[in-house]
Amino acid sequence: MAANTVFELRNVGKVYKADKEADFEALRDINLEIYEGEIFGIIGMSGAGKSTLVRTLNRLEDVTSGEVNFYGENLAEMNGARLRQARQSISMIFQNFNLLTQKTVLENVMLPLKIAGVKKSKRKEIALEMLQVVGLADKAKAYPLQLSGGQRQRVAIARALTNNPKVLLCDEATSALDPKMTEEILNLLQEINRTRKLTVVIITHEMSVVEKICDRVAILDDGNLAEIGKVTDIFTKPTSRAAKTLVFPNGIEDMINPFDRGHGLKRLVRIAFDGTSCNEPFIASLVEETGKKVNILSANTKSVNGIGYGQMVLELPEDETDQQIVLSYFTGKGLSVVEVEEDD
Amino acid sequence: MTEYIQQAILNGIIETLQMTFFSSIFAYIIGLPIGVILYLTSRGHLYENPVVNAVIGFLVNVFRSLPFLILLVLFIPVTRWIVGSSIGTTASIVPLTIGTIPIVARMVESSLNEVSAGIIEAANSMAAKPWFIVVHFIIPEAIPSLLLGGAINVATVLGYSAMAGVIGGGGLGALALQYGYYRYQKDVLWVTVGILIIMVMIIQEAGIILSKRVRR
């Protein structure tokens, strides 16, 4: 990718020293890059280290080994003043919004500007403008606890945007919200990403969030970087165990209904199709063109970034030549075919 | 009740209010910063410092565990040095203040502890300096709780002020002691006690109402 690198993590490790118990290794040898203008997802089960990882990006957590570079500058080597300067361009929103309950929406949104030393009249002007961006200009005088969860997160987003940051870190920003509000917030983040050229880093445990708006994703598993890549690639061809667990939350076995199986053990393949082939009735074409039949054990399609992606688990014919004909037909169509092992 | 006693009760009320008011103010002027320091130097907070925290915490605990009556007597020389006399309403304010400071400090510390860590994390992510975080994030968020704690503290001072009567302080406590206890005038005793109860209730209710009004 030709874009500028915003964050570069090199061999990042984090160990929490415990007094009596064994030390806890939250992150192990993480290497990754986050590019300018992208929406980068970090996904993992709870306890996988995602929250720690995102906090190393603005040094709310210090790393114990390796380095985190922000536009080529090691965060660990910054002094207090330089770090605060960097933090002005790295905004953050949280699962619990972390708004001041005793201050009005407007006062909340004005706070980062006050910290940055902006004049009072200018503060109000910018804050009102940001509330306009998130669609809450009419709530300026309200208090956070009078608002819904989705509205509170939008206030937090307005607050995060006031200093015109380069990056927005979202720590489980939609996890406390219902699906409808989640949708609203994700749309807003996507819009901000596009219109303001803002790099967005999203921490989540929900695959649906990643599917909906992320360009690339890193999968964390027990402190390790299990897999990283374009969301579409990981969704269609997950290779790590952690990725598979996230793409098929109940395991591949769950996708295969045992009652649908033909007698005897036959070869199973998983076909992943992306937006281009999704609309084509390729199973029907297979039968028409080759005369060979397959048994569909399960199928599942999803919309990722507005494009249809899906998987299908197929049982191939018994005859090996027939199997070859079917497989080459699919590969000829540009579909990705992955062998399914029974214990997958 | 004679007119003389009635006048004495009226004076007692005024003296009690004076003692309570000034002692509470002075106790907060000194106790609030101590509470803030206790909070800030405790583990995991902005100016974590185990030594400072342990020393201040120890002093606070020592003064808190001294029975107030003992503290009254112990601090007579200090009172005499500050006020010039050890008896009377003004003199009582010194031990009352000293006795209330540690209570205020602990109350403030616990109110500040109620502020969620997330708020402080957000402040840090916004590049706020530690002192800015204290003044613009932590204290404003703790105000409803500080007010509730304040009402409890003022009611405590009021109770203590009654004790000051024993060593020559003024107020309703002295009245109850002198007329009610030493002279067996039970009516004076019960009237003063009744007035004290009403005063405590008013303070407590006012605190609750105020706290509710500012809580958003």
Tell me the layout of helices and strands:
The complex is a heterodimer of chains A (344) and B (216).
Chain A: E1 5-16, E2 24-35, E3 39-44, H1 50-56, E4 65-70, E5 73-74, H2 80-88, E6 90-93, H3 105-116, H4 120-133, H5 149-161, E7 167-171, H6 179-195, E8 199-204, H7 207-213, E9 216-221, E10 224-230, H8 231-236, H9 241-247, H10 252-255, E11 268-273, H11 275-278, H12 282-290, E12 295-304, E13 307-315, H13 320-332, E14 336-339
Parallel strand pairs in A: 3-8, 3-9, 6-7, 7-8
Antiparallel strand pairs in A: 1-2, 1-4, 4-5, 9-10, 11-13, 11-14, 12-13
Chain B: H1 3-41, H2 50-65, H3 68-74, H4 76-83, H5 89-113, H6 117-125, H7 130-163, H8 171-182, H9 186-214
Largest interface, C-beta closer than 8 angstroms, per-chain residues? A-B, 30 and 21 residues
Q: In terms of per-residue confidence, which ranges of chain B show pLDDT below 50 for 5 or more consecutive residues?
A: none
Shape of chain A: globular
Largest sheet of chain A: 6 strands, mixed
Q: Tell me the helix content of chain A.
A: 25-40%
Strand arrangement, major sheet of chain A: 6-7-8-3-9-10
How many domains make up the 3D coordinates of chain B?
Answer: 1
Could you say what the CATH architecture of the largest domain in chain A is?
A: 3-Layer(aba) Sandwich
What is the typical, i.e. mean, pLDDT of chain A? 86
Strand percent estimate of chain A: 25-35%
